[in-house]
Structures are given as C-alpha cells and as structure tokens.
Design goal:
The complex is a heterodimer of chains A (about 375) and B (about 375). With about 375 residues, chain A is mostly helical. Chain A is about 70% helix and about 0% strand. In chain A, helix 2 runs antiparallel to helix 13, helix 3 packs parallel to helix 5 and helix 6 runs antiparallel to helix 7. With about 375 residues, chain B is an all-alpha fold. Helices cover about 70% and strands about 0% of the residues of chain B. Chain B is built from 14 helices and no strands. In chain B, helix 3 packs antiparallel against helix 10 and helix 4 packs across helix 10.
Chain lengths: ~375, ~375
C-alpha cells in the first residue's frame, strides 16, 4: 500500500465524516458523531472485508471469483436456516443454535467454493461465467427454498416464518473500566472514553474479520502455504515443475475463499439482523471485489478500501438520522437513493485506476492445463 | 453454432454441425429438468404435474401462446444485448440497468412530450421517437462502461453492475419524485400512462401480443446480419476473438469496444422501450429487476447466436409464463423457475459436465472472457 493510495483513503473518509458532522453538529457533538460513524463504518465494512479476503485467497491462487455475491447470499440463507432448524425443530438452546448457524454459513460458503473450484479448475469453465452461474444459482435456490420451506405445502412451520434465535451480541471492550478511575471526576474525560468505547465494542464477526485480515496477511506472505499459493497464481507451470500440486492448491484456496464469503453471509443474517430476505446482499459481493482490486490484492490494503466503502454506507445511515435538520437547499440529500449512490460511484472511480495501476496475479483467471 | 456452411461442405456436414450445436443445450436442459424434478419431489411436490402445468400454461391455448410471445419480447432484446457483447469479448451484466434507463426515457417521451408541446403528435412520429430515445439512453448508459474499459481498463463486469445500482437508485429517485404518477389514488412508484400515440398496436384483437414481438425477431435478424455481413461486425468479432491480433490488423480496438458496448446497451434499452410502449404503457419501479441475469442465461443458452437467443428466449418466456399455471396445479412457488433456469445455465456453461455425463467426445469452441482485471 503506497502512500498516495493511503492518503486518498484518508481524504475520502475525512470528507464523508465531515459531511455528516456539518449536517448534524447542531444536534450532537462532533466527537459523538465521529465515533458513532466510526463504529458503523467498522460494522458495515465487515462483509466487504471478508468478501475481499475471499477474493484474495481465490485470485492469489489464480482463480477469478466473481461469485462472491452469490456465495454470501447462499451462506446467509443456509446459516440463518440452520439456526432456525436447530432452535425450532431440534430443540437446541438459543446460543448453540446461533453458533451452529454461523458454522453452517461458513460450510455452505465452502461448498459454493468447492463448486466454483470444480467448475473452474477441473472443468476449466470460463471463470467469469462460472462465477455468474453461482450468482444466479444462489438467487434462484435461496428464493425458491425461502418460499417453499416456510410457505409451501407440507411446510414444517405451517406457512409462517418463525423467529430466528436472534443475533450475535456486541462484545464489550473494557476500556471504560480501565480508564474511568484514571479520568476521576473529569466529565469530559469520561465522555471521550465512553465515545471511544462505542467504536471498540463490536460484534464477533466484525472482530474476527479484522483478525482474519492480519492472519491472511501473515499466511500469504510469511508461510510456506502462502508462498505456494502465490506461486500457483503467478506462474503455475513453474510451481508444477518444482513439485507443487497446482490443482490441489487452487482447490484448497478457492474453498477457503468460499468460507470467507460464507462468514460474510453469516454477518447479514446472524450478526447484523436476524432475518433473511431475497437479494439481501445488494451488490456487496461486487463491491468487495473492487476493494480487493483497490487494495492491490493485499489483505491490509483491501481492508482499508473496505473501510472506505463502509464509511460511505455509514454516511447514508447517519444522514438518515439527521434527515429533518438537513437544510432545505440540500433537500435532495434527504433521499437515501441519492446518498446511496456514493459507494457505487466510488467503486467505478477507483476502478479507473486514477490512484495508480494495480497488478493482479499473473495467472489470474487462466485455467491450468498440465 | 457455425453459421457458415459454404457450397463446399455437404448437407450431411451441415446437419451434423447443427446437431452438434444443439445437442449440448438440449442435454443441458434435459439434465436441469431431471434435477428440477428431483428437487420438486424432495419438497413433496409432483414433478409430472408441475411440468404438465408448465407446458399447458405456456403453449396450451391461443392466449397462452400470446402471453409466451409477450414474455419473450424483452428477453429477445436483452439476450441479444448480452450475446452481442459476448461476440465482442465483453461481458455485459448491466442489461438490467440499461433496460431501466430505456424504459424510463421512453415513458417520459410517451407521457410528457404532448404536455411539453401543448398538442398531440401523430403516432407515426411519437412512437418511433419514444423508442429511439429509449434505445439511445440504453446505448449511452452502456457506452460509459465501454469508455471506461477502453481508456482506463476498468473491468466492465464490475462497472456494469455498479451502473445497475446507479440506474436503480436514480429511477427510484425519479419515480418517487418528479416522474411519479400524480393520480391521487396512486401510491406506487410509477410514471403516468403514456399517450395513445406512443403505443405499439396489438396484432390480434383481445390478445396482448403486440408488434414489438415481430420487431424483436427482425432485430435478431439484423444483429446476425450486422455481425456476419458488415465490416463493423467483423471488427467486433475480431476484437472479441483476439484484441492483440485485431490491433495489428489495424482495427481501432478502443473505438470498437465502446461501439460494442453502445450497441449492446441499445438492444437492452430497446427491451425496456418496447416493454413500455407495447405492453405496460408506463414504467413501474422494480419491473427491470432480474432481466439482467436472465439475459445472460439466454445468451449463453443460445450460444450467442441470434437464432439461438430467440429460441432460448421463447423457452425462458414459456417457463415464466407457464409458472402461474404450475403454481395453480401444484402449489410450487414461481421461484422454482429461477432455480430451473440457474440449473440450465450451470449445465450450459459447464458443458464439460454434460459431455462427461452423456459421454460425448466432441470439443466445442470455448468462450473466453476472463482476461484478468487489467483489461
């Protein structure tokens, strides 16, 4: 990640945050607005971060994965479904059901990864088409099963969507407990500590996404596995010559990538909200890909790009909070459709390469023929 | 599908090549239908009754046939849009957005132009104008992506999807705001009805099939003619097959990429225009959703050949149209169709699987779209 790129990211985030502060400063103090924006940014960047990691695993091994969107949708549905089945039909307690739901999401993501690997590695289907197949299949299958399992004849739930066991809870970071004694009687100090604490208090998948960014960075660049993965993505013939099994490495990495997308899916239906609706991923799988490209196929770079997209989404969410006090000459900002355009336009600008060229792995998208 | 069968090759060869081209899609559909039947049985439905309903609902009566043609019309245009882009080596996932732009603009010309001018325009001017403006809108929307691809290398797959969301947000903004139907009883995000002079007439009294279907068939022929008989078509196909070779042969690759996207967007825009002027007489929010992916499936199923696209469109239209009857007979949700179509797409795209299942040895041409993200 070069400095120009980092500077641009910082600039965009400052502009986005500044916009909300400008609109809302009459109602809340800037520090509260900024910390709440930060907290939202980190939370909503979670699926984008995980999606980008999914892309990185696949593409570093030489397989383009445009099916992240579909993998997320698929996993979001099956994770949610597993949690409901465990809770309502198999009589599990609340927390075991939720955890099984998360595991089911990860596994179904991995299953989609396996499908993508079969298509693109074994059958050498054009990888863009293979990914599109996954996207279309996910829309069709989740839409059908969602309708059929709950409203169809012979539904185990009798024509009603039962309540899911719930969402994952926010983990409290004990910052207040540590700093409040130090602050003593100073009300400002307590206020600031409390504000920072709202940023750090995140839900489990959001936290694991950040951990996975650094784990992936380590795995890719400091382990034998990572070296092999990258060599398979850069020059499979050479890798094959020195005895690395190209197919095996590609299979493994695409499945891992699928599991990352699966965890992102769990974010939608188990962490963020506890319900499923068709098409709920809303293009975020594709935005993940843009984050991956912007981050030049590095985990940390992709994460910072995901934060930019998160910030532009947080902009939309927070703008809606201040809807009524937006001055009349800026009335169009009250429409979420208008502010909602920001992430999409940002993606397109980033892809033009105004911030310098990015280089994909050399063998990205090329099926390997022995 | 090999279109060139010169006098040198015998009739037997021609039949053989036609059979080869049709064999894989046919087996793909068959495999999807069998898998679909297993899934229907798994969710405790009756697969035979479901498929019977599907066929009865789509081809069983004059009305059913008319409705199938009505469904097929936008599919043909959108499928041609994706197929044309495929020929040029581009993957247009943005048919949905281009279609929405075409529909919005045609609706605008359809209902607002007489108001602006203050008098009624004859149909012979109004209708073509509405359709052309929609088509040009779609062409413009897609050519932005073509321009970005040609000059910055921004990948068209992501950009067309982003343009879909931008189109969706923008049309939501317009249809909930300035273009919303002012009828006090209206709560839906939709435009007012277009003037009579901007409507495509029906072919038969009492059936909804309109001349737009015939127009779609004509356009399919024109696309085939353009691709195979004109210099532009040759350039598009050359760039699609090998951009480097095209460059050395003196083809302006950048211009061709932009033109291919523009033509593709024009066809998708026509899908929206014809739907507004021929069927709905207004644009309603959400109508365009799903057409983009259906169009991709249709283009792949039709092997990017205009005739194949027409046949695949009729198949998909029949499935959508028959779904209501199927639901009535078996209580299977209409979403079953999306899944069946996804399975068909899976087996068409991964024809190696179908070849493996049915032990077919012939090796067809392979579509190559993935050339990395740099463009």
């Amino acid at each position: 990640m070069d400095w120009r790129r980092f500077g641009l990211i910082l600039l965009i985030i400052i502009v986005l945050f500044g916009a909300v502060v400008l609109v809302g400063y009459t109602r809340s103090s800037p520090i509260i607005i900024i910390t709440s924006m930060l907290a939202t940014t980190i939370a909503v960047a979670t699926p984008l971060t995980l999606g980008a990691l999914s892309g990185i695993y696949c593409e570093r091994a030489g397989v383009v994965n445009i099916g992240i969107e579909g993998m997320m949708l698929f996993a979001a549905f099956f994770g949610w479904l597993a949690a409901i089945y465990m809770f309502h039909l198999f009589g599990f307690e609340k927390w075991p059901s939720i955890i099984i739901g998360v595991i089911a999401a990860i596994l179904s993501g991995g299953l989609m990864g396996l499908l993508h690997a079969v298509l693109s590695v074994t059958y050498k289907v054009d990888q863009i088409i293979g990914g599109t197949v996954i996207n279309v299949l996910a829309v069709g299958l989740t839409g059908f099963l969602n309708r059929q399992l709950f409203f169809g004849s012979g539904s185990a739930f009798g024509g009603d969507v039962p309540n899911s066991p719930g969402t994952l809870v926010t983990l409290h970071f004990p910052l207040r407990e540590i700093f409040n004694p130090i602050c003593g009687a100073s009300a400002d100090c307590i206020e600031i500590v409390r504000a920072i604490n709202t940023v750090l208090d995140q839900k489990p998948i959001a936290i694991s996404a950040i951990l996975l960014v650094f784990i992936t960075h380590y795995v890719l660049f400091y382990t034998r596995w990572g070296l092999r993965t990258r060599s398979v993505g850069e020059h499979p013939k050479a890798a094959d010559t020195v005895g690395i099994n190209v197919y095996k490495m590609r299979y493994a990495n695409v499945i891992i990538g699928g599991m990352m997308a699966g965890l992102a899916g769990a974010y939608f239906t188990i962490e963020s909200v506890s319900s499923f609706e068709p098409l709920l991923t809303n293009g975020r799988g594709f935005i993940s890909l843009a984050a991956m490209i912007f981050g030049n196929w590095t985990p940390i770079g992709a994460w910072t790009a995901a934060l930019v997209f998160g910030a532009s989404q947080a902009l939309n969410i927070n703008m809606q909070l201040f809807r009524e006090i937006i001055p009349p000459q800026w009335a169009f900002l009250r429409q979420s459709y208008v502010v909602g355009l920001v992430p999409y336009i940002l993606t397109m600008i980033i892809l033009t390469g105004v911030i310098g060229r990015t280089t994909p792995p050399a063998a990205d998208g090329v099926p390997y023929e022995k | 599908m090999q279109a060139e069968t010169r006098s040198g090759s015998s009739l037997k060869d021609f039949l053989r090549s036609a059979l080869d081209a049709l064999l894989i899609p046919f087996l793909a559909i068959l495999t999807a239908i069998i898998l679909g039947a297993i899934i229907i049985a798994w969710v405790k439905g009756n697969p035979f009754l479901a498929y019977y309903g599907l066929i009865q609902g789509s081809f069983g009566s004059a009305r059913a046939l008319s409705e199938t043609a009505v469904w097929a019309t936008p599919y043909i245009f959108a499928g041609l849009a994706v197929a044309l882009a495929f020929k040029g080596g581009l993957f247009n996932i943005g048919a949905e957005g281009q279609l929405a732009v075409g529909a919005v603009l045609s609706a605008l010309i359809g209902y607002a132009l007489p108001e602006w001018l203050g008098f009624n325009i004859p149909s012979i001017i109004h209708l073509p104008l509405a359709v052309i403006v929609g088509a040009v809108g779609g062409a413009f929307w897609a050519s932005i992506v073509g321009f970005l691809k040609a000059y910055t290398g921004g990948h068209e797959v992501i950009n067309t999807i982003m343009m879909n969301y931008i189109a969706l947000n923008t049309t939501s903004f317009l249809l909930n705001g300035v273009m919303k139907d002012r009828d006090p009883n209206n709560v839906i995000a939709r435009t007012p009805l277009i003037a009579d002079s901007a409507r495509i007439p029906e072919i038969f009294e009492g059936l909804r099939i309109h001349w737009g279907f015939v127009f779609a068939l004509l356009v399919a022929y024109l696309v085939w003619w353009m691709l195979n008989k004109t210099t532009l078509g040759f350039e598009i196909r050359t760039v699609g097959a090998n951009p480097d070779a095209a460059k050395y042969a003196g083809v302006n690759v950048k211009r061709t990429i932009i033109l291919t996207m523009a033509l593709s967007g024009m066809l998708a825009g026509l899908a929206g225009s014809i739907e507004v002027t021929g069927l709905n007489y207004r644009h309603e929010l959400g109508f365009s959703i799903g057409y983009g992916f259906d169009a991709i499936a249709i283009a792949l199923l039709g092997k990017s050949h205009p005739l194949g696209v027409v046949l695949a469109s009729i198949l998909f239209a029949a499935m959508r149209n028959g779904a209501t009857r199927m639901q009535f007979l078996t209580q299977m949700p209409v979403d079953l169709i999306s899944m069946l179509q996804a399975l068909i797409l899976l087996f068409v795209a991964a024809d190696a699987i179908v070849r493996y299942i049915y032990r077919i040895k012939t090796q067809g041409e392979r579509v190559v779209l993935t050339r990395g993200w740099g463009g």
